Amino acid sequence: MRVLGIETSCDETGIAVYDSDKGLLGHALYSQIDVHAEYGGVVPELASRDHVRKILPLIEEVMAAAGTEPEALDGIAYTAGPGLIGALMVGASVGRALAYGWNIPALGVHHMEGHLLAPMLEPEPPAFPFVALLVSGGHTQLVEVLGIGEYTLLGESLDDAVGEAFDKAAKMLDLDYPGGPQIAKLAQQGRAGRFTFPRPMVDRPGLDFSFSGLKTHTLNTVAEHAGPDGLPDQQTCADIALAFESAVVSTLVIKCRRALEQTGLRTLVIAGGVSANVHLRSELTSALTKIGAGVFYARHEFCTDNGAMIAYAGCQRLLAGQSEPLGVTVRARWPLDSLPECKVNK
Ligand code: KG4
Ligand code: ZN
User: Fold this and answer.
1) Any idea which ligand is nearest the CA of 187?
2) pTM score of the predicted model
3) Which of 244, 304, 309 to mutate to test the pocket of ligand 1 (most atoms within 8 A of CB)?
4) Residue-wise pLDDT tens digits, 307-326
């Protein structure tokens, strides 16, 4: 089965063609970072307009690079939520309309299921069952995954998502949006031990997270060391970036270890934009291999938003015979554990 995947949930237009026999045939990503940079965050209306401008040329480009004519497609998968409604509507309408015109089925994919399954595109994919740590700009969740669509939420953030906390901490240090990669880069120059930030909620039982206290601690530390321009000197900013990143990483490591102990599972999958963080990947790998667990993640470009993960997830569900009627439904919020089971991949 060959599927065209369309991702437009936020500020990236991602397109891919995935074939269940041949693997990923082509993919491309257009990032709107420059459009939103001057506002310090994503402006929903501008995001929708830019998706409209870019989506069809990008589909044409990816289909040509994948050597795929419309007749060779068996289905179209588009992100149907969670995300920005206007942005989702662009991908969903285009995907649905093309499927109608080409007389093939279409399916709306859950964005976080896309992230969760992205490591399946790697040469050595994880096997079910596993625990997934989903860490993106909008979500921080620990999920027990028995198969596609068989998800039990183990814990989640009670306030900010991890990616959001990275973005806000970056703003405090006057770094550009998106802040995660900027903090990670600056942290490389940081000196360990200069500051130690609190590890939120690790002394409490359970698998929920909270990052608002860490955010306030970061803000206070920046204010305490600020010079006349309102910012600490460059070295202090780097020390703060490292202290922040280390606090986030060790909190996530502690909770992931706890989730594996609680479920008795021995495989952890990390997915979503923050799983691109090299410090997080290496700390999780070294802590969890010690307890005999394996850690899996997608290649860097498939950690953040992309069309390949939507094409893959959609393909699995289309293979199981799932598809949607002509009316387009998109959702700003959509609980992952409300998705139907998908038997085919078990
Ligand atoms: O999954 P994603 O691309 O979009 C959402 O679904 O939200 O995640 C974006 C988030 C942003 O908050 C960004 O700052 C964060 O992922 N991020 C990172 C890194 N790369 C992206 N956070 C920490 N370290 C990184 N290397
Ligand atoms: Zn995402």
Assistant:
1) 1
2) 0.97
3) 304
4) 999 999 999 999 999 999 99
